[in-house]
Amino acid sequence: MNEHLRTALDLAASRIPVLPLRVGKVPFGNCRRCAGNACGGRPNMKTAGPCTCPGPCHAWAAATTDPDVIQSGVWRRAWVQAAAVAYHPGGAGLTVVDLDDADAVAWARENLPATQTVPTTRGEHWLYLGPMRSANAVRPGVDIKSTMAYARWLGFGTGTMTPLPDVVRALVVREPATARPAAQAVTVPAGAGGGECRHRTPAYLERGIAMAEQRISAARSQVHATVFSTFLAVLSTHGRCGCLTETHVARLFTAAQAKGESPRHCTDAWTNARTRLGL
């Protein structure tokens, strides 16, 4: 069996979604329309493209843990040509801090909590337990790879993986040019709970916020309506138990502003969602 295929099956058995990479760390197109990256390299989804293939075709959207798909005819041919195995960190519930050079590694050692580390060609991958929004160039030599992104599999590395810290989340929160709109939204209504999510665990809230960020980021049309409905969904679940923090709301506002929403639109959508729910 091909070495890359064997690695992919082992990872899939551990519930880590995988995909093959060509030379240059580029995904294969899984159909003729995407051969040679003709579709533009975007994962095929109803809300993301230009690819018009009938189903998720390649890149992070095609990462899978299904051994039948991994060993299917199209993929089997890809593994023979593959230069590396990649995985979808967000799909595995992970975040990779990709440190691209020695200066970035030195910065991480001074500023980030210790966690599992994997050597790369020029630097290191630091792996944390928990998904978040991906972003490139959050600081010199540092990328964040988690949801809607893929990372090259380079082994398990060393050290113990620790929970995703706020200092890493903060790397993708950029201050807008105007005053932060989150100030109005973060105040928990009087009479709310004592700050603990009564539904399940803190991980339940984290998954909800990550899914909300991904839903907003994936919107290609009717962005304002998507933002409002997403805010409404988050508030309907967590608006009364007091577990939403300023950091959570800032993450939602940042995702919305990245899609072109103004600070005022974000604030209005949040306020309208609270009003709809009587908060």
Key structural traits:
single chain, 279 residues, alpha+beta, 6-stranded mixed β-sheet
What is the gist of this entry?
This protein is α+β, with helices and mostly antiparallel strands and 279 residues long. Helices cover 37% and strands 14% of the residues.
Structural class: alpha+beta
N-to-C series of helices and strands: HEEHHEEHEEEEEEHHHHHH
Helix content: 25-40%
Would you report the number of β strands?
A: 10
| Proportion in β-strands | 5-15%
Rg calculated over all Cα atoms:
20 Å
> What's the tally of helices?
10
- Largest sheet features: 6 strands, mixed
Distance between the termini: 58 Å
How would you sum up the global shape?
globular
Spans of at least 5 consecutive residues whose pLDDT stays below 50 are 44-50, 175-195
User: Overall pLDDT, averaged?
Assistant: 79
Write structural notes for this entry:
The chain has 279 residues and is an alpha+beta fold. 37% of the residues lie in helices and 14% in strands. The chain has 10 helices and 10 strands. The strands form 2 sheets. Strands 4, 5, 6, 7, 8 and 10 form a 6-stranded mixed beta sheet that branches. The chain has a 4-stranded antiparallel beta sheet with strand order 2-1-3-9. A hairpin with a 4-residue loop joins strand 5 (116-119) and strand 6 (124-129).
